[in-house]
Design a protein that fits this description.
334 residues, alpha/beta, Rossmann fold, 2 domains
Amino acid sequence: MIRLGIDATSVAPEGKGIARVQRGTVRALAKLGRFELVVYARRPEELPEVRARRVTWRPTLAWEQLGLARAAREVDVLLTWTERLPLFGSGRFVVWMFEPPTHRIEQNRQVGARAWQRGSDAVTSLLWRRSLSRAAVVLTGSQATADAVRDVTPARPLYPGLDERFSPGTAASGGSVLHIGSNDPRDDTTTALAAARAAGERLVVVGGYAGPAEGAELAGRVTDDELVDHYRRADAFLDTSLYEGFGFQVLEAMACGTPVVASDTTSIPELVGDAALLCPPGDVDAFAAALRRLRTEAELADDLRRRGLARAAEFTWERTAEQLADAVEEAARA
């Protein structure tokens, strides 16, 4: 049996994004039972399915360059989400990346990231192309990301599964449109606010957005259970993202039976298929028109609910685990 190491150091209470992916991966692979798992985590108590080893390496770069190198000697294959693989030592690595680091670095520059983040980005710029050449297999969260790194490394998409909590419910409609926003420019929350005003819709914004919000309700950060309730109560979900390596939010909304209006960019079109109304990024008029259609065309809204539920149901952790296991076995043979 292959001894598989999993770098689950991002898992944290109520963690989003990669933290959620790592948690789902550990659970799904443990259930699959095809490997002997050795899980490395900063919070082993968050992964009761396995006896994870506690990681205390600080800073993150030390874990990536020294800790991962040591861990790779203990296992046959090591699965990680970092693009900064150790430059020295042996080992077979599977890397699962969700966006090219160049985009993240540019975003950090635009928002005036702190000095430590700028330093980390400088290291990433120096390392990531060279370190990815050490990977036996590179997976991406979407075809859009695979295309974005094509000139650096061969990669193929592997979609993560959705948490089963994201499902239809019986909550009464809140008569509002939901948006998950922040002050990150790529969420483009200002466009969501403007589109909702133009469409005459009451917008509920969850997340870390803290800017002007005339006519909108700022609900702040919420737990996953609270987020599920927000999805179920919304008459539509509005995603105005300018960039998504993998658009969890549109799939979560569809899984809860909420019609989606979203940006026609990066990974979003491939994820939603024909189950959402797509608009050019930043086009307030187009987003507002789409929201009006959902409000006035009941048959369209019902059709998008049906299509969305069917599309979201394809993103299961069981399927992801099988495909990931095949990639691990491929790496073991490399």
